Each structure stands twice: as structure tokens, then as C-alpha cells.
Amino acid sequence: MTYQEEKLFFDQQMQCTITGHDGVIKETDANIFSWKVSTSIYDAHPFFEIIKGFLEIFEKEETTYNFPCIHLEEGKLEKICDVTIKINTKEVVILLFDYSSKYHELNKIAQQKNESVLRAKELELKNKFLIDKEKFKNSFIANINHEIRTPLTSILGFIEVLQKTNLNFEQEELARIIKRQSLHLNSLIEDMVDISKIESGKIKIVEERFLFVNLMEGFQETYSKLAEDRGLAFETYIDPNIQEYLIGDRTRVFQIINNVLNNAFKFTEEGKVSLSVTKNFQRTNKLSVSFKIEDTGLGIHEEDLENIFDRFTRFNRDKQISGTGLGLAIVKDLVDLLNGEIKVTSEPDKGTTFDIKLPFKFEISKAKPEKKKKKYSLPESKKKFRILVVEDEESTQFLIMKVLIDHGSFFVDVAMNGEQAISYMERRNYDLVLMDLELSKIDGYKATHMIRKNYGDKAIAEVPIIGFTARATEAERDKCLRSGMDDFIAKPFEQEDLLYKIVKQIAKKAAS
């Protein structure tokens, strides 16, 4: 076979198709399949639906995906192709390599005798793709979580500073709106992170003894204020026969009830929302508690009820209401994790009722008083306390400096990275270090380790260090403490919480 003949044969085994980001075919040589210009690639074969997912996560740099041994059909024509998909800012290039004859030659006997092996391999490839996709998604959510929390820290922090200044009525209202929308954005991020944790099995149910009545009264207080602002009635009933202290996962119970109450208020414009908490049954040291949340809101159509707990699903047909559609999906997943039950009944324009049953345990003993947050005060000093802020975000630097300087008890120095921080500490004594974890050159973990291990001078080696980061997870907190830090605060943070932790560590150091 001559070179030209070989080239012609090879060209006939390839097909190049170019589409726009909308999936419409702009060019194709139709060597293998007779796809037409101006038709949609998504109609050509279901396999190409995956392009939509790739376009959603595309980030400007050209990205290539390779898929071996893909079965494609067009009418009676069947081909086994290796598929390469290249995505750039202007178009999507799809390259097909027809290896049907080679695959059939090499696998003819194997296909006859080992069809089960091939099916297993196909499932393995699909599973690997799903696993890789899941890893990418979780990584993507974690990064988005970090990148959004950082500017949110500054937005919420400066709004809090602004609200303490002399504002007129209109300015106060604008500040409240900005803060409310920022908190809403933060809650949406937390929803996505929670879903990711649930899917990856990273949420652990913790059984701890907590003041159940206190938790329920917290809902009464919070949502009574919201009801008053919205012109709604909020009715509550808490069964006095429920033990004051219960054993269970307080955090997850709070998430469940809070999400459902929040959903009820979101879809109720007039009338009332009610929360009824009753004892379902009790056996020895175990009991089941029923939570009934009713509203007189928009309601849900009967055909939509079976899908109400699906992710990214919203049923506000006649009204645009903000949200991701993740709240109730999280509720259902958490109820299942707690071995509980949840049911919903609803009627359009009349309201919705959620019935939730959750299991708890309790101790047959006298209740102990709940621990209160210990108060700390700065040691008496004729001079101000010096704080080193290690942070590379200019807006966060300014926010922390503003908070600490306005307090009146602190001098503040700022270092851009761990290397600069260590250099400052070698020249000046500090009473406390606020250490961001995501730093260039030397990150917060390594800088802390060096401070703790490399210096004989106690003024350096034993300085209190508080880590802070936008990666607000228990794992991150534990990593901070293991690296030698004394405490941890997540972004975005409340200014009172930040000051409390600073005063606490300085007071503890002075008392040691």
C-alpha cells in the first residue's frame, strides 16, 4: 500500500466535527457518521450529553477529554470509536477514531467466551468516570467554598463596622439588606458543602448530651422575630413531658428543624407558621420525638410531592423565590442518617405540613446545668497588647486592623506570609499571632511548626497563635490544633467571637 493509499485509508477512519458551545454542528467531514451541519450534536447520540457537564465547569483554558472504546450508532451503522473532546473558548472539537475492525479482530474470541468480563470492564470504566467526576465535584465545591468565604469575611465584617457608625434611616436599611443577602449567600455555600459531605460519607453523627428545651426555645425566639417582621403569626408548642436533656446529634437536629422552618417562612406570605414538638413514644432510656411544622403558604401540587426532596428542585410555580433547592434534600439526607422519618402533606394555596420523627436517648439521672461560656478579660497593663496579623488579603487585613484598633487595647502589625511573620517575630515580641492558613512561600501550618520547634526563646516559641481560614471544617480545625495553634476561627467570623478568642488566649498566657 502506497503512502497516499495509507493516508486515505487512515483519513477514512477519522471524523472531525466542530460545534459551538450550544451544541450546534458548524463543520463536519462526515467520514464515519452522516451528521449534518446546523443540527445538534446532542441529537446525534446520547453519549455527547456529557459535553454539557464539561461546559459547566470550563474555565477558559483549552481542556481535552479522551474516551476509549465508545459504542456509537446511527441507524443500523454501529462503530466502536475512541473519542477525543477538546473544549476552548469558542468551540468544541470532537474527534472520532474508528477502531471497530481492530477491536473486533482482537476481541472476537474473547467476546464469545468472556462477555461477562467485557460487561464488567465497561462498568469499571463507567464507575471510574463517575468516581473521577465525584472527586472533581468535591474538589470544586471545596475551592469555591474557600474563594467565596474570603471576600464574604470582608463584606460582613465591614457591614458590622458600618452599622456601629452614625447612619440615617435609609443607610441603616441598605446596610441591613447587604448583610441579609451576604448571610443568604453564605448559607447557600454551606448547603453545597453539606451535600458534598453527605454524598462522600464525611458527615459523622455525634451523640452528645444537650439541653433539648434550650434548642427549641432558640427556635421560638429566632422565628418569632422573623414572623413579626413578616407580619405572620408563629405558634409553638413544646411537650412538657419531653426530658430537659437528651442525647443525640444537636447540630443535625438544628439543621433539620431550621431548614424546614426557614422553608415554611419563605413560602408563606400571610397567615401563620407553627411548630409542635411532642413525645411520640418512650421505652426505657430511648424515646421518639415528633416535630410538626405547618404553614399557610403557597403549598405544593400533588404531582410534585414525590420529588420534593430531590436536589436542585423548586416548586414555586407562580412566584420567584431565591434558593438552591438544596435545603429539603439536606433535611431528607440528615433524617435518614439519624434513622428518623419524614412525611409531607400539602395543598396548593392552603399550606404544607412536615411531620418529622427523630430518635433520642436520655440519661435517667438528675440534669446537670449546661456549661456557660467562660468570661475572660485582658491582664492589667500600662501598654497596649501587640498583635501580629499574618494575612495576604488586603481587605481582610484592613478589617482585622479596624476591629482591633477600635477596641483600644491593641497595636497591630501585618505580615503578608509565613516567612515575613517569622522575620517580624525575631525582631519584636508579640502577645498573639493571628495566622491565616492559606499563605504563599510558607503557609500557616508550616510557619506555626517552625515557631514552636525552632526557637529556644519562649517569647517566640510560646506565643499564642490563632489560625483562621475560609475552609470551615472540623478537619481543618483539628489540623490547626495539631500543628501547634492554640485556637481556630472560621471565615466569615463574628467580630465579638474574634475578640473573645484573642482576649481568652492572652489571658490564659498571662495566667500560665
TrEMBL record:
Regions that span the bilayer: none
Coiled-coil features, chain-numbered ranges: none
Its EC number(s): 2.7.13.3
Lineage: superkingdom: Bacteria
Protein keywords: Phosphoprotein, Two-component regulatory system
CDD domains (alphabetical): HisKA, REC_hyHK_CKI1_RcsC-like
PROSITE patterns linked to this entry: HIS_KIN, RESPONSE_REGULATORY
Domain Response regulatory: from-to ranges: 386-506
Modified residues (4-aspartylphosphate): D436
Domain Histidine kinase residues, every copy: 143-362
Reactions catalysed according to its record: ATP + protein L-histidine = ADP + protein N-phospho-L-histidine
Protein known as: histidine kinase
Organism: Aquimarina litoralis
